[in-house]
Amino acid sequence: MARFIVRRLLYAIVTLWVIITLTFVLMHSIPGQPFNNVDKMTPTILAHLNYTYGLDKPTYQQYLIYLNNILHGNLGTSFRYEDRTVNSIIGTGFPVSATLGFEALIFSVIIGLALGVYAALKHNTWADYTAITIAVLGVSVPNIVLGPLLSYYVGVKLGWLPTGEWGGFEYTILPSITLGMTSLAFMARLMRTSMLEVLGMDYIKTAKAKGLSNREIVWRHLFRNSLLPIVTILGPLVVNIITGSIVVEETFAIPGLGSSFVESITDKDYTVIMGTTIFYSALYILSLLLVDICYGFVDPRIRLAGGRD
Amino acid sequence: MKKWKPLSLAAFVAAVLALTGCGSTASSPGSSTNGAGSQPKLAAAQTVNLLEPSDVEGFDPNIADEEITITAISQIFDGLTRIGSDGVTPEKAIASSWDISSDGKTYTFHLRDAKWSDGPAVRAQDFVFGWKRELSIDKYGFIMNMIQGADAVVNLDPKASAAEKQAKLDAVGIKAIDDKTLQVQLTAPTTYFLGLTAFVPFYPAREDFVTKQGDKYGTSAATLISDGPMQLSDWKQGSSWAFVKNANYWDASKVQLTKANYTIVKDQSQAVNLYDTKKSDMVYMLNADNTAHYRGTPDYHELSIDANYYAEFNPNSSNAVAAKAFKNANIRKAFGESIDRATFVKTILNDGSKPATGLVPPTVPGDPKAAGDFRTQNGTLVKDNDPTTAKADLQKGLQEAGLTINDLNSIHFLTNDTSTAGKLAQLITQMWKQALGVTISIDTVPQKIRVDSQHKGNFDICFAGWGADYADAMTFSDLFTTGNSQNDTKYSNPQFDALIKQAKAEPDNSKRAQELEQAEKLMLADGYISPVYFKGVAVIQKPTLQGVSFLPLGPDYDLKNAFIAQ
C-alpha cells in the first residue's frame, strides 16, 4: 500500500510538471498583455512595465524563475491586484469554493443515491419513470441555465431564498442545488442500473430464498454491492463539482476561487492563471489517488500493490 | 491673469435627459440636489447598496488605472477640483481659488483649510508628493504629459539610476510655494487642465503616511487615509467593500450618505435579481438583454458618455487584397457609407447609444464663443446608410484599384469574443453583404488579443473604441497623428498633423476649437476610420436614491451629493 502511494505520488509530480510546462508555454504563446490600458500606452511605457515585471526576459528564463519560485512554495503576485499574492487569492477563495462544493456533493450523493435506489426497487412503475425523468433533466440542463432559472424563480419571483451573494446557510442552498444537479442525476442513473444488475444476481435470489426480509436484503446485500461503480465516479465527480463551481460562482456572485480563475484568464493575469491551474490540477490528481485507495476498502477483491502471495 | 471660465454643458446634458424622459422627475440622474423646486424628504437610514462587476485593484490612487477602481477611489478622495453635478464642470474642491497666467501655462492653486480623514491638514506638499509619485509609478502617469518635465520621467529608461530618476522628478514643474499654494507649470496652454485636477491620478498623497505604510498603503481601511466625502471602512478582497462618511471632510455638511456598501457581482442577471429583491439601489451599464425589461419605468435612465466606436480599414494589412482595397479612398468610403447606424444601435446595443455623426462624441466642449458643444458646432460628418452611393463608390474604387468584387471576399473582420461584439460583427458584415455584395469573414479573438493584433496592424477591418481621457476633442483627434501608437491604420496626413500641432500650442480657446474642428473634418473625409456609434449607458436606479451625478468620462458616477429619499 505504502509503495503504491509513493509511486502514485511520484507520477503525480511528473504530471503536475507537465501541466505547469504546458500551461506556461500556451499562456505565453497567446498574444496580449496582462496590464490594463495597454491600448492607451505608448510602446515606451509598455516596455517599462515589461521590464518591471520581468516580462522582457527570454521566455525560458521566465520559466526557470517560475519553476524555482514554485519549488519554494511561492506562486507569485497577481498582475492585476498587485497587493495580492496568488497564495492569498487561493487562501481566501478556496475555502468558499470548498464549502460550496462539499455541500453540493453531499446533496447530490444523498438525493442521487436515494433516487436511484427508489427507482430500482420500483422498477418499471411510474415512480421509476419520474425518478429517471428527473435524472435525465438534471443531466441535460447545464448549470449555466439552471442557476439563473433558480435565482430568478425561487429568489425573485417566490422570494424564498436569496438570489445570490454569500452569507449564511440560506445563501448556499440554491448554488449547491445548481452545482450538484448534474452529479445527482448521474448518480441516480448509475445507482439504478447498478442496483438492477445486482438484483439479478444469484446471491440475492439465495437471500430471498433464505427468507430474509426485504429491508435486510436491500441494506446487507444490494446497497453495498451496488456502491462500487459509484465510488469509481466519485473522483471525477469531485472534480466536476469543483470546475462546475466556476460557472455557479459567477451566476450567484460567490467570492470563490472559480471566479478568480475565470477573471485571471480574461485579464491574462499570468501568475493567477498558473497558480490556480496548478492548484486545480493538484486537487484533481489527489482526488483520483484517494478514489483508488477507497477501492481497496469497498471491494477487498481489488489489490492496489502487486498483491501478497 | 484670468480666472478660468467653465464651459457650461449642463444645458446639453439636461436636453439628453429630457429626451430620454427622465429630465423632469426628481430622480433624474445628474439632477442636483440644490436645484429649485420641492426638496425631497430624507429617509432615516442614509445607506446605499451598490454592485460592481469586479473588485477594486487597490485604494492607492497612484496605482488606479481602470474604471471600477477609479470610480471607487473618487468617492473617498477630493482633488484640487471636483466635477460638479452637471457631470462636466470642474468646481472648487481642495482648491478654493486659482490663477492662470495670461499665456495659459502657469496655474497657481490656493488651497482651503481641508483635512485628511485622520486629522492633519491637506497641504500643497501633499499634491506635489502625490503627483510625482504618480509619475514615478508610471502606470497612468502619461495622463500628466502636459506638465513640464513629466514626459521626461515617464519615458526615462527603467534601468536609469535612482539619482537620475530623482533629478528628472525634481525638474518636474510642480511646486509647493507654501502649505497653501501650489504652482503647476505646463508645457502648453491646456484648456481641460482644471477638469483633470479632479481626476484620480491628480489626488494628493501624504508622504509621512505613505512612507510608513510602504507596500501596504491603500490595501485596507487601516492603511489608507483620504480627503474626500467618504472613507474606506472595510474591504473583503474578492467579495465586498464599504465606505462611511468622512467626518473630517471640508464639505461634510453637504454629504448625506452615511454608508455605501459595495458587493462584487460579475454576472449581470444576478445583479438585476439583487436589484429586484431590493438588495441593491443601482445597476450601472445595463446590457441590451436587460434594458427592455426596465425601459419606461421610473427606474430606467440613459446617459451619454464620452466614448466613440468606429471601424478601421487597414491599408497596411498583410492581406494583399485588403491592403490594395483600403489604399483606395472610394472603397473605404463605400464601406463607411453602407453601415446603417440607427439599426445597429437599436438592435444590438439598445442602451441609449447613438449613431455616430463624427469622431468627437456629444458633451465634449467646442468653441466657447459659439453655441453648443463640439459635435453640434462641427455638424454631421458621417455619411450613413446610403447603399446607392456606396455601391457607386465601390464600383469606382474597384476599377481604380484593379480589383473585382469577388476579390474582396478574402477580407476579414477582427472582433472580440464577447457576445455583444459577436452580434455587432455579424450585423455589420451582413450590412456590407446587403449593400455591397461583399462577404467578409469574421475572426473572433479575446479582447486583449484583439488589441494586440490591432496595434501591430495585423488586421483588415477592425472595430475600435476610445473613451475620453479628458473633456476635450484633443483626446480623440490626437490618436490619428502620424506615428501615434494608437493609430492602427498608420494614417498620415501632413495637413492633419499640422492642425493638431497648431491646436496644441494655441492659447486662444476659440481658435483652438476651430483648428480641431477642421482637423476632424479632414480626417473623416480621408475615411481610414468610420465612426459607428457614440456609447450610451443604461442605468437602473431606485427612485429613492437621488442626487447621484453621472460622469461622461473618468469615474462612472459621484455619490457626494447623493441621498436616500423617503
Mind summarizing the main beta sheet of chain A? none
CATH architectural group of the domain at 94-257 in chain A: Orthogonal Bundle
Cα(first) to Cα(last) distance of chain A is 15 Å
CATH topology tier name of the domain at 94-257 in chain A: MetI-like fold
Q: How big is the Rg of chain A?
A: 24 Å
The coarse silhouette of chain A is: globular
The CATH superfamily of the domain at 94-257 in chain A is identified as MetI-like
Would you identify the regions of chain B where 5 or more consecutive residues have pLDDT less than 50? 1-37
Average pLDDT across residues of chain A?
82
Radius of gyration of CA atoms of chain B, rounded to a whole number? 24 Å
The overall average pLDDT of chain B, rounded, is: 88
How many E strands of chain B?
Answer: 21
Helix content of chain B: 25-40%
| Class of secondary structure makeup of chain B | alpha+beta
Structural class of chain A: mainly alpha
Strand content of chain B: 15-25%
Q: pLDDT below 50 for ≥5 consecutive residues: which ranges of chain A?
A: none
Per CATH, the class of the domain at 94-257 in chain A reads: Mainly Alpha
The helical percent of chain A reads over 70%
Figure out the total of helices of chain A. Answer: 12
Search tags:
heterodimer, A: 309 residues, mainly alpha, MetI-like fold, 12 helices, B: 566 residues, alpha+beta, seven-stranded mixed beta sheet, four-stranded mixed beta sheet, 19 helices
Would you mind describing this structure in some detail?
The complex is a heterodimer of chains A (309) and B (566). With 309 residues, chain A is mainly α. Helices cover 75% and strands 0% of the residues of chain A. Chain A has a domain at 94-257: MetI-like fold. In chain A, helix 5 (126-140) crosses helix 7, helix 8 packs antiparallel against helix 9 and helix 10 runs antiparallel to helix 12. The two termini of chain A are 15 Å apart. The model of chain A has no long low-confidence stretch (mean pLDDT 82). Chain B has 566 residues and is an alpha+beta fold. In chain B, strand 4 and strand 5 (106-111) form a beta hairpin. In chain B, helix 11 packs antiparallel against helix 14 (387-401) and helix 18 packs antiparallel against helix 19 (509-526). The two termini of chain B are 47 Å apart. The model of chain B is unreliable at 1-37 (pLDDT under 50).
